[in-house]
Amino acid sequence: MSTTPRTTKRVLALLLAAAVVLLGAGLARPDASRAATATPTSTSAYVPPVKHVFVINIENKGYDTTWGAGSAAPYLAQTLRSQGVLLNTYYGTAHNSQPNYVAQISGQGPNAQMQGDCQVYSQFAQTGTAAPGQAVGNGCVFPASVPNLTDQLKSKGLAWRGYMEDMGTPCRHPALNATDDTQKARVGDQYAARHNPFMYFSSITGAADCGQHVVDLNQLSTDLASTSTTPNLSYITPNLCHDGHDSPCVDGQPGGLTSVNSWLQTWVPKILNSPAYKNDGMLVITADESDGPQSDATACCGEGPGPNAALPGITGLGGGRIGALVLSRYVKANTWSTTSYNHYSLLASIEDVFKLPYLGYAGSSGLNRFGLDVYNSGWNK
After folding, report:
1. 214-228 per-position pLDDT tens digit
2. What is this structure's pTM?
3. Pick from 342, 339, 357: nearest CA to 303
4. I need a labelling partner for 190 at 20 to 30 A (CA). Which of 118, 215, 264, 283 fits?
5. Which stretch of DSSP H or E encloses residue 56?
6. Where does the record locate the signal sequence feature (predicted)?
């Protein structure tokens, strides 16, 4: 989402969030070198034997806009929706965009710079830790001591890849502590680093094999050709036009949900027809956040103030109601779940699938994780 100041209220809210960083630093443990820890994993029998997870995020779309009767994305809201289970009480965890993506792979809450979409690709300055598994401080690129989902997958010998449209050069990100030059789309280059959460963890960007794991979207077609070449986790981000962020787009395309619809019609069939998906796959399609902090900053699932942000949603506690669609052989077509979920729930549910410990807020007490309301096909009977 664009972070150009729009109202005095928003500016004051961001200043308040920055002040909370300093307060959180004073209350946190003094040991800044201690890694954020994970809580034990679930071994629930209701989790199906999924071995390949696909995640697609669109941008800045509230529930009614995306899933309502007048949706400008009928392929998503009607065709695909009829094939899966719609989570109609699924929420973003923050505003603006960047912290929602980070939440999905690490369970870390936002800070002031993240809420500002990391205009500067700054090093995270850690001052301590706080429960559950939160790095206390401010900044954007977390040190290697802060774990993320890819660290967990690697520890179990599981494969992962991030597929980023228009990324071009693998593992592409701004120079550390430099201005992020991907904040605005350019003709032929509509990649946004802030929509690529892997670039905000030093354990990924500093690794010699980063370029093998975070690649341009074009690689996905090749990888889907066989089960053996399809990663266990495929995290897919369209460009600033095809994710619906821009409207109209810099290249003349309409953008918004119209371009989302066209992009999904091209790429989702490739996933659904792939051997890995057919064998044991699960596809989750959601949005990063609602239309913006002024329109909807509601939350669910017990989300509250974090050590680095009193209001994760800038004007409220969350990123608003967005919805999510889950498709899988373990899911019954054209069904609903009214259980409340958010991005931390998604992370915890992926960790359940791969039998991994819960990271950060994914380990929050009482947080809902996908259960038989989602895995509702009767697969385990």
Report:
1. 999 999 999 999 999
2. 0.91
3. 342
4. 283
5. strand 52-58
6. 1-28
